[in-house]
Amino acid sequence: MLAPLQRLEQLKARVREAIATPGFGHPHGLVSLALELPQPLHAAPELSGPRFQFAHSHRGELRAGYGIAAEWQAAGEQRLQRLREQARAAATDWHQLDPDETGLGGFAMLGFAATPEPTTTPGASDLPNAVYWIPEVALSTSGEQSALILSTRLPVEPEALLTRWDAWLERLVPLLAQPARAPLTPATLERGPSEPALEPWRDLVLAALDAIERDGPLEKLVLCRRQRLQGHRRFDLDRLNDALAYLFPSCQVINVRHRESCFVAATPERLFTLRGRRVEADAIAGTACRAADAARDAALTAELLGCAKNLHEHQVVVAAVGAALERCCTRLEPVEGPRVMQLNNAQHLWSLVRGEVDAAGDVFSLAELLHPTPATNGQPRRDAHDWLRRNEPFERDWYTGAAGIVEPDLSGELWVLLRCARVAADSAELYAGAGIVPGSDPVSEWEEIDHKFAAIATALQFA
Ligand SMILES: C=C(O[C@@H]1C=C(C(=O)O)C=C[C@H]1O)C(=O)O
């Protein structure tokens, strides 16, 4: 193993050396070059242009990408099947070079909006409906091992590639060694109106309850709100990432920026993890707030575990996740849970559903089967989707979509896009929702969503 590469000039020399090797001479396909970095990275520094980040403090994991080496976009009912075909074709011709034996390599990001219909509201989104994206430059940290990974389509002219990659290294490498910056004085953020406002929200919840209680298939609907926050300074993504990692160390801190605004989330909920043939999915539904006083907090936890309405809301999700996995698994393990997942601003009922997928299983087929779960949409899936399309006052865009890292063998992990905001310059739009089942009360659900908004709102104050 080579000594850790600490300086820009060393990395540039390594890149020049690598570009001259046969790996770059293939007449087609993709090549990724991984070079060892000396220290674990906790967050990916901000650079202008397209970027994404997935950072998980407790796990000590970071995956980030900048620029676009290759990407495929899709919308409509077939969006995941179409991306799957393209990802499969790309995977068969993707050469991985790992001269430092880091064990790390090129990867892609898969992300998609809540629903496959393209947005109809002008300006509502600057993210593609669904995208499979191989970044030109990536950072990867797993435990103590870190790498910088450069990827390109082939064939490529070596001198042009070297010029391009040198420019990336010059922009990025000096930022990797920067010490954490001192936090800013928390800013006052002005709350804009909530969409819907309280009265129309009450009507919406009552209409949902009516639809559920009528003789029909609907068992559960998840309704959401949008809240605008206006800051007095431009939000700083590095500081926002630091604050989210500090406040939510057990959540996945996600950023995705394709064009202008940055979609940011600190989500506790995995859609699934697929490693080898083993799949693990979270079922999270049923929420209580936290209390500063330990005895009160324990009482809230006990209440949540004993609340029939929350247990029913949770069970609907467990059953749907189990049924989805049954369709692609050769073996399912007994469900683990519900237990309580505690976050800074909320606590949730949480169960784990695990199994072994059949030979056809990959991230795309699992995403198709599992997304959206009744945790964010409702049950049954199609009826809930149609009801929400007719009744929700705005488009969800990527909120309650999913995103994550896909390995070249099409295994990987996707996260449900919750506790999120679309951040542009000095303003942010926050999205959050709550599950409605018989017994749900409009005002309690309104307050539950306020607690969920607090996840990103608190971090934005320090950005
Ligand atoms: C829809 C959201 O959260 C979902 C709804 C929950 C609930 O209603 O109890 C809990 C966790 C999430 O699955 C959100 O945070 O926006």
UniProtKB/TrEMBL annotation:
| Keyword Phosphoprotein found | no
- Give the enzyme's EC designation: 5.4.4.2
**Domain Chorismate-utilising enzyme C-terminal per the UniProt entry, residue ranges:** 199-452
> Record's family?
Belongs to the isochorismate synthase family.
**Keywords on this record?**
Isomerase
Q: Which Pfam families match?
A: Chorismate_bind
Q: Superkingdom of this entry's organism?
A: Bacteria
According to the UniProt entry, its GO molecular function terms are: isochorismate synthase activity
Q: Is Isomerase there in the keyword field?
A: yes
Query: What is this protein's name?
Result: isochorismate synthase
Organism encoding this protein: Marichromatium bheemlicum
InterPro entries in the record: ADC_synthase (IPR005801), Chorismate_C (IPR015890), IsoChor_synthase (IPR004561)
UniProt catalytic activity: chorismate = isochorismate
